[in-house]
Amino acid sequence: MKAKRYSTEFKSSIVTLYNEGRSANSLANEYHLAVQTVTGWVKKAQIIGTDVTGKPVTRAEFNAMQKEVARLLVDFYSLVVN
Question: Which residues form a coiled coil (predicted)?
């Protein structure tokens, strides 16, 4: 079965409702979502730190930055070896 895609706006509204005190279970029931989907969106939206400019960084942004650093390291080492 193909995974259902949700807009960024919809995910953000669910996370906002969660942060305002709604439970993951109630949101999952009301919007016909899996509880794990709601908690996953909340986890990805959590601010886990700030960047060098002081801008808040979410877990999802941090994970994307880690992947980019890994890709850049591979590119760098391939240049050094050749």
Answer: none
Looking at the structure of the chain, the number of domains it has is 2
CA distance 50 to 47: 8
| Residues 10 and 34 both lie in one domain | yes
The residue segments making up the domain with residue 71 are 49-82
* E strand residue ranges, 1-82: 47-50, 56-58
Q: CATH no. for residue 41?
A: 1.10.10
Global pTM?
A: 0.71
pLDDT single digits (tens) 41-72? 999 999 999 989 999 999 999 999 999 999 99
pLDDT of 1 reads 66
